[in-house]
Amino acid sequence: MTTPTTAEIRTWANANGHSISSRGAVPAAVRAAYAEAHGGATPAAKAPAKKATAPTAAALHARIEALEKLVGELTATVEAHATSLASTVTEKVKKEKKKLGRKKK
Asked: Could you tell me the pTM of the whole model?
């Protein structure tokens, strides 16, 4: 017996008087009734997701080092942009002062 899809089980369940929602997990009792009606074993529900294991101290240390390196790179980039921006603003201020100085005469 091939494993039926949940859509097939739902269609069968609705046609055979079982109250079942159109979404979510198919109840075990409905799966068992489907299997019994079709002469097979109870179709298995989806396997539960595996729980994540905690990272090791070495993995955490490696992540921290990578983040520290990234922070250093970002800091350098921000400082370079800030220096460039300050230089641009300074030049614009000087030009505006020259314009104002010429207008006063």
From this structure: 0.39
Six-digit token string for 52: 């994540």
Q: At what angle do helices 6-15 and 28-37 cross, to 10 degrees?
A: 80
Q: Which amino acid is residue 69, in one-letter code?
A: K
Structure tokens at 79: 């400082």
H helices then E strands: how many in the chain?
A: 3, 0
The 10s digit of each residue's pLDDT in 65-85 is 999 999 999 999 999 999 999
Tokens of 59: 């993995």
Query: 69-104 as b/e, with b when 16 or more CB fall inside 10 Å?
Result: eeeeeeeeeeeeeeeeeeeeeeeeeeeeeeeeeeee
Query: d(Cα 98, Cα 92) in Å, to the nearest integer?
Result: 10
Tally of CB atoms within 10 A around 8: 14
